[in-house]
Amino acid sequence: MAPDAETKERGDIARLARILKLILGQLLLLVLVLIAVVFAGEWYARKKFPDLAYVAERQQRPEDLFVQFDARYGWANRPGADTRFRRRDFDTHVEINERGFRGPVFAPPDSVFSVAVLGDSYVFGHGVEENETFSALLREKWPFAAVGNFGVIGYSTDQELLLLDDVVLPSEPDVVLLCLYRNDILDNGQPTAWGIYQKPYFTREANGELKLRAAVEPSVPLSMRIRREIQRRFVLYDVLAFRLAGLRAESHGEDPAAASGESGPSESERLTADLIDTMASKCEARGVRFLLVVLPGLSDTAFLANVPPPGVGSQLDLAPAFEEYERLHPDSALGFTYDSHWNPRGHRLVADTIAAKVEALGWLPGSGPPSSAPSTSSK
Length: 379
Fold this sequence. Notes:
The chain is an alpha/beta fold and 379 residues long. The protein is 44% helix and 16% strand.
């Protein structure tokens, strides 16, 4: 090779090396900037959303202690689990009976009166001892009654409908209480809860019927496990995932009010109402009384105005009782400091309010003829 050509080739190689070095340097700088932005965003999100920061910081998780994968429901309580559940706000004993639920095994034939309670972590008693749950407090108020706690952390109405069919109605209770919280409306009709836990779901068909979509896989996919770990540790991810879910809902027409400026129930609200109506009708067909208990936190309950249908069940809105208590006792909180769940005072108030409603309806043995026109409000 000629000296000039060799010199030119070496020069080209040197220039290429400098260009690659510059590109790599720019890429490294970009990566560092992105990392700094992520950490700054995480710092801001933890300051802006302290409740989510608490979630990201918590040390113990139910699925590591007393919850397991379930091919029917997505997850379920682990029968026989006996452990302590510790968070910043509490340190409680959790024991799951052989049927897979908290508290004594539900045995209606042995009792004069029986009540089955369906719901999520608020029913389960997240953060309180079993004898402090409102189900246990109802047993105290009604010594003659069996009160079954069928609460499972994270469940939504669709899973509770399956549980009603599989476990609760075959137990032949006298009354079914269904507790509704705001996350139920978000998760009903979705194949995952919070985008990271698999679950079965229902869709509303063109003829108005509900169709079960069993989307639960035999095991938790790797991608879902990764997302779960990221969400547990980064508040920013939780916030962005929630915002993106809202945008997707709008783009699919799930929120007509947001998309068109018109008022009216969203698709998820209509589905939730249909699920509740279905549960109430199933109970009525078996001669079981049905009470929908609406937990505080729903920003708009207008879509529940006639849920369950008149003559099929009754409804109790807990919000007025909570508002009245907070007005009279402004320094006495009903929930934990960092966790949004009820503390023992909150459960006591719920038990008192439910007991008063059931007694007013005439559903207790020896309390007179049962109410023939179920109420749709506690107000």
